[in-house]
């Protein structure tokens, strides 16, 4: 995903590997039930076209159980600082 953002003119500001953890709720994805997942967080800046493409890629990738994209703000000054690490 980071390579996809970079190749299309975006900026990756940070990447954190949170490791394997149990899921809160057993989830069925791609015809398989999952109870554990590998969590990671990527903080990046890109345009709406790339966001749409990332969402499509996350939904179609069989390795991804669930993916979320969260908008942190509209202006650069609002999102220049990475949020504190909290889980």
Q: What is the CATH architecture assignment? A: 2-Layer Sandwich
Oligomer: single chain
User: How would you classify the helix and strand content by structural class?
Assistant: alpha+beta
The termini sit apart by 21 Å
Main sheet characteristics: 2 strands, antiparallel
> What's the CATH H-level homologous superfamily?
Ribosomal protein S6/Translation elongation factor EF1B
Number of separate domains: 1
| Strand adjacency order, main sheet | 1-2
The shape, in one word, is: globular
What is the CA-based Rg, rounded?
14 Å
Q: According to CATH, what is the class?
A: Alpha Beta
Description:
The chain has 87 residues and is α+β, with helices and mostly antiparallel strands. The chain has one domain (2-79): Alpha-Beta Plaits, CATH 3.30.70.60. It has helices at residues 2-7, 48-60, 76-79; strands at residues 11-29, 32-45. It has a two-stranded antiparallel sheet. The protein is globular. It starts with a helix and ends in an 8-residue tail after the last helix. One of its GO terms (molecular function) is structural constituent of ribosome. This is 3289_t:CDS:1. One of its GO terms (biological process) is translation. It holds the Pfam family Ribosomal_S6.
Summarize the structure.
This is 3289_t:CDS:1. 26% of the residues lie in helices and 38% in strands.
Task: Please specify the SSE layout and strand pairing.
Blueprint (H helix, E strand, L loop, with lengths): L1 H6 L3 E19 L2 E14 L2 H13 L15 H4 L8
Antiparallel strand pairs: 1-2
GO molecular function: small ribosomal subunit rRNA binding; structural constituent of ribosome
Organism: Acaulospora morrowiae
GO biological process, one term: translation
